[in-house]
Amino acid sequence: MAVRFGRRWLLVAAGTVALAGAVPALDALPVADRTGAQGLRQRILAGAAQPWVGLAEATGRLALPDLPALESTTALFTDVTRIRAFVAGPDRWRADVLTPVGERDTYRLDGGEYVWDFGFDQLTELTGRPVLRLPRAADLLPPELGRRLLGLAPDDPVTPLAARRIAGRAAAGLRLTPGDPDTTIGRVDVWADTETGLPLRVEVAPRANPAAPLLVSALQDVTLHAPEEAVLTPPQPPGSGDVLAAANDLGGALRVLDAAPPPPRLAGRPRVPLTGEELPGVGVYGAGLAGFVLVPVSRGIADRVLNGAGAAGGVPIPVPRGRAVRVATPLLSLAVRGRRAGGILLVGTVGPDVLERAVVELSQVPA
């Protein structure tokens, strides 16, 4: 997978889920750790070119309020996701989401992206490269997830973990402990192949309960060789559909076109520059593993999120006009404000008090 340490993805998708099930007996054997934690981090971040083929599993149980237009995205973090991957390099890979009734395959080939839907017998070519894209199943693969999280916090301290066997391979481990006191993330644990630095297992635990990881993604089996060229080519059987579609992005799913520009600073955090076309009203704030995204939404979407947040035990935020509510989960905080002219949604891996400050600041800006 392409190594894009886009904090934009993390801030939308942060809040996920514990993998159920015991480690197979093969993986419980002791392994000698010959790599220091800092050296292991450097090898992991430098190893994006390593080819591999394998099967991964991630599971999620994070309870979230209703997020209109994001149902398929939040489903990635509230259920078991099984992904078969074929990776030749950062820009040549295939990831298949396996379900009881079929599969949905994503292909990345030399700058282009395609999705094959087995059930609909349809190939979709995705156009454009969103500046703030929605997370996808391929982002949960341990190599992609491990590199992304470590790359977001290059200066936070890492310590070694006991080595283990994962998917039949010797794996050295490290623990990253975020230094920002506002982040909801308490630890990120990564185990990587001792020979290549390929991440094999990733665990993310909240600061409120660091002993209980809320995201675990692990390879069930893996081979460290390039896939056959044929499996990287999207199928086009006779009679199948072939369509074009824009790649999904957060702004396109929720934003409003006439939104005011996002402020340069919010809740004490600077706005992060985004490469590519600016999205009206959308802003990303903060750095490392502590930050949030601001998205303007329509009145209808704001009302639906407000109702869902209230049902989820949300805490009201005093604002001069309209309604505002904040919701806290162990890894993800959310705040929403609705009024007659529209609303705003804030989501991030920061405490709910940070998002409340942001809502209050935004409510003081003249409409």
Which terms summarize this structure?
367 residues, alpha+beta, outer membrane lipoprotein receptor (LolB), chain A, Phosphorylase Kinase, domain 1, 2 domains, 20 strands, globular
Description:
The structure is a single chain. The chain has 367 residues and is an alpha+beta fold. It has 2 domains: 7-246, Clam (outer membrane lipoprotein receptor (LolB), chain A), CATH 2.50.20; 250-363, Phosphorylase Kinase, domain 1. Helix content is 17%, strand content 37%. The chain contains 7 helices and 20 strands. The chain has helices at 7-13, 37-45, 71-75, 142-152, 250-254, 299-311, 352-363, and strands at 52-59, 80-89, 92-99, 102-109, 112-117, 122-127, 158-166, 169-176, 185-193, 199-206, 215-223, 241-246, 265-266, 269-270, 283-287, 290-297, 315-316, 323-328, 333-339, 342-348. Strands 7-8-9-10-11-1-2-3-4-5-6-12 form a 12-stranded mixed beta sheet, with helices on one face. 45% of the residues are buried. Mean pLDDT is 81; it is low at 1-26.
